[in-house]
Amino acid sequence: MKTQSELVVKKFGGTSVGSIERIENVAERIMQDFQNGQKPIVVASAMSGETNRLVRLAADINPQYRGLAYDMLLASGEQVSIALLSMALEKRGLKAKPLLAYQLGIRTDSIFSQAKITSVDSDKLTDLVSKDIIPIVAGFQGVNPDGSITTLGRGGSDTTAVALAAALGCEQVEIYTDVPKVFTADPRLIPKAREISRLSFEEMMEMASLGSKVLHFRCVELAAKFNVKIHVRSTFETREGTWVVAEDEKMENPVVSAVTHDASTAIVKLFPVPFGPSFLALLFDSLANKGVIVDIITQSYNEEGQRLAFSVNESDLYMVDEVLKSLSIDAKIVVLRDMAKLSVVGVGMANHPGVAARFFNVLSQKEVPIHLVTTSDIKISAVIDRKNLDKAAQSLHTEFELDKE
Amino acid sequence: MKTQSELVVKKFGGTSVGSIERIENVAERIMQDFQNGQKPIVVASAMSGETNRLVRLAADINPQYRGLAYDMLLASGEQVSIALLSMALEKRGLKAKPLLAYQLGIRTDSIFSQAKITSVDSDKLTDLVSKDIIPIVAGFQGVNPDGSITTLGRGGSDTTAVALAAALGCEQVEIYTDVPKVFTADPRLIPKAREISRLSFEEMMEMASLGSKVLHFRCVELAAKFNVKIHVRSTFETREGTWVVAEDEKMENPVVSAVTHDASTAIVKLFPVPFGPSFLALLFDSLANKGVIVDIITQSYNEEGQRLAFSVNESDLYMVDEVLKSLSIDAKIVVLRDMAKLSVVGVGMANHPGVAARFFNVLSQKEVPIHLVTTSDIKISAVIDRKNLDKAAQSLHTEFELDKE
After folding, report:
1. What is the dihedral of CA B41, B45, B47, B49, to 10 degrees?
2. A93 contacts in B (CB within 8 Å)?
3. Of A20, A82, A100, the CB nearest to B60
4. Same domain for A154 and A25?
5. What's the pLDDT score for residue B252?
6. CB contact under 8 A, A147 and B103
7. Smallest Cβ distance to A69: which of B98, B102, B147?
8. Residue of chain A minimizing CA distance to B86
9. pLDDT tens-place string over residues B98-148
10. Last residue of a domain, which of B145, B160, B178?
């Protein structure tokens, strides 16, 4: 794979192309980059609101249905935005070509709504670029071996952009969004949140899986795999955003880089459950088959029997209920709603002992009970009552010196 | 081409799939046909209103733009409706597969927005049908040799349906619409209009080009070429509709089968214009290049000079104006707006002399001035003032014995 540094893959999210006015703004920006000698390859999401409109249409017919037809339906949103963006560029005298996944050979497996990209033909893109035609690529979509449209799941357009950059041998990809940088915490929750200028892939992956909505896990994972730097920046400002890079490129490593949260958590407790792993395998297999992502799992055993607790997204509770009913489990089931998962993330944690102690101390001082805990080399997460989220997050943000000076 | 009489291509128009409720209704109808042993192949248009929404989005960026991006944009409408219809069928326990033009190899030339189908792979369709999977095909779209989406122009989904039927060797195609039959005249204009049970391809083609909106010219032309009978019927009723068939299958040939009209006509008159055909060639070439369809053309010559008059669709007047300006013609230009073209059509006319005389007599008795006239073997058309359209149409409808008894 040859490095083609003049090629820049630019991805514009749903809010960036959310209206005709904003599409014109994006076209203006691309034109300036093109005139400055860049060779842009553009990836666009559906206009904001459009995917939700399509989801509602589908739900009116069958709220449970997922599969080939659903993916074809959702993929139409990107088709509209890339066509309009191409028209806006052509109006400015540039040559642009809107391209769908089947035209570019963005091949995936056949897991509808969660498809993974298996390969991308980059020849067509380089050919267009060599003729000064700006490729405008539909994000979020691929084609399976049968030639049917697949979609890549939430944040799929980011993944498309990184996959194209990797296939083209680009060093970086620009992800344009509605925030100027990645923050140390959600600024709506913590007004003192600071902007982060550099993050490691590992930190960003943890943040994504812990509730930060700026980038999605799979996109960062793919960028790490192919060492494509991600430049997250605002569509509405020109200043530099946040760089997500390999750890060795990151100069300073604060102990904790960010506080993240996920406010839509619920806990399911079962007692007593059959002893041994076969029951757990059956339960979590059944949940996975229904698309329920189980996050933290704990079990404990004493003379009274085995206890099991796990956290899920609150919106998946009805599916959990269905699965538990289908397994006819003879156990007391307790569901705790209105929970939140609060986490601190930082590659510096690996070399700084005592972070966990500081974490628990803060929550204890603020009298915040902890329901579940999980840790890794670079993060600590606790599930707490949602009503305590604000004060707990603010205290951790201060404790780990993330507040604005 | 083997005749596969069990296969039935069914095309549902925009109003037939215009809401979730109507899509469910169509699914119900297809299910019944399937359960009765039919092997349906379904073609669907975009939900009514959707194409207009997309056209407005495009117009907000560039009202003049036509081309690749525009066709990709418009084609998204059918993608939505076929996905939803497939979901509605699967909900009913049937197997259905939504299919886009690129998946079926519906190949066209590269004339965007007016593409002509060059070939269709029917193997994939017969393969699906043999597995009891109902193909749900996006109408209106094709792919050009480059693999880009093209669209077939107004009424394109009808053309898709006929092309599939021809490729599959079907004897007939069902066109489901919002009227139960083709009428002897527009019932909104002439309350006494009768339903027609059988029409020849030639009559239907004339009617289509003279303003009847039920079927489009190209669809009927293609059906005539491959001798595919068209059954026009209502989505909301089960009774038989109108059959459009080869002339030799038509039992009764009334002198006049229908009165049609086009209420959006305008006339352009030029005097004096340069003598000879070179000026006319230049003028009509320039108009064609701008996409202006010139309908009736007359010219006359006397000692004062050469006079030219032609009729166009009123909405094309601004393009005509542009072309005339660009040619810097040194002639007086008179534009007559608010005109209407009124026609009588019937294969019986070829064998019944005197139809033209009856036509002109009626208009003369009703004191309706005629601005332009054109005739063929099976039709007579006159451009008249729009304000006279109602009484003229009613009188002709009565004169040629088309009124309900």
Report:
1. -170
2. none
3. A20
4. yes
5. 67
6. yes
7. B98
8. A69
9. 999 999 999 999 999 989 999 999 999 999 999 999 999 999 999 999 999
10. B178
pLDDT of A3 higher than 50:
no
> Which residue in B20, B72, B80 is closest to A98 by CB distance?
B72
Tokens of A210: 């812990």
Q: Which residues in chain B have their CB less than 8 angstroms from residue A70's CB?
A: 83, 87
> Is B63 contained in some domain?
yes
Task: Give the residue among A71, A293, A193 at the shortest CA–CA distance from B97.
Answer: A71
pLDDT tens, position by position, A120-148 = 999 999 999 999 999 999 999 999 999 99
**Is there a domain that residue A165 lies in?**
yes
Distance CA B249, CA B255 (A): 16
Q: Which of A122, A146, A178 is the endpoint of a domain?
A: A178
- Do A174 and A281 fall within a single domain? no
Inter-chain touch B91–A61, beta carbons under 8 Å: yes
What CATH number does the domain containing A69 carry?
3.40.1160.10
Measured CA to CA, the distance from residue B404 to residue B382 in angstroms comes to 24
Report the pLDDT averaged over residues A271-282: 84
- From A76's Cα to the closest Cα of chain B, the distance in A is 5
Same domain? B167 vs B294: no
Instruction: Give me the pLDDT at residue A347, please.
Output: 86
Selected residue of A22, A57, A66, A106 to mutate for chain B interface (largest B Cβ count, 10 A): A57
Chain A 57-116, CB below 8 Å of chain B: which residues? Answer: 57-58, 60-62, 65, 67-70, 72-73, 75-76, 79-80, 82-84, 86-88, 90-91, 96-98, 100, 102-103
Cα A355 to Cα A360: distance, rounded to the nearest angstrom: 9
A41 with A146, same domain: the answer is yes
Q: State the DSSP code for B19.
A: S
Assigned domain for A125 exists: yes
Q: Are B132 and B265 found together in one domain?
A: no
pLDDT at B2: 42
Is B369 among the domain residues? yes
- The CATH number of whichever domain residue A352 belongs to comes to 3.30.2130.10
In this structure, the answer to whether residues B174 and B267 fall within a common structural domain is no
Do B33 and B143 fall within a single domain?
Answer: yes
Distance CA A298, CA B101 (A): 51
Q: Which residues of A touch B95 (CB under 8 A)?
A: none
| Contact call for A87 and B58, based on CB within 8 A | yes
Range of the domain at B126: 7-178
Count of CB pairs separated by less than 8 Å, A with B: 111
Question: CB A69 to CB B84 under 8 A?
Answer: yes
Q: Is the pLDDT confidence value at A90 over 80?
A: yes
Q: Are A209 and A378 in contact (CB under 8 A)?
A: no
DSSP string, B36-97: TT-EEEEEE-PPTTHHHHHHHHHHHH-TT--SHHHHHHHHHHHHHHHHHHHHHHHHTT-EEE
Provide the number of structural domains found in chain A. Answer: 2
Q: Are the C-beta atoms of residues B3 and B165 closer than 8 Å to each other?
A: no
- Give a three-class secondary structure readout of A152-192: CCCCHHHHHHHHHHHHHCCCEEEEEECCCCEECCCCCCCCC
Chain B (5-44) residues lying within 8 Å, Cβ to Cβ, of chain A? 20, 23-24
pLDDT less than 70: residues of chain B: 1-5, 250-252, 405
Are residues A392 and A284 located together in one domain of the fold? yes
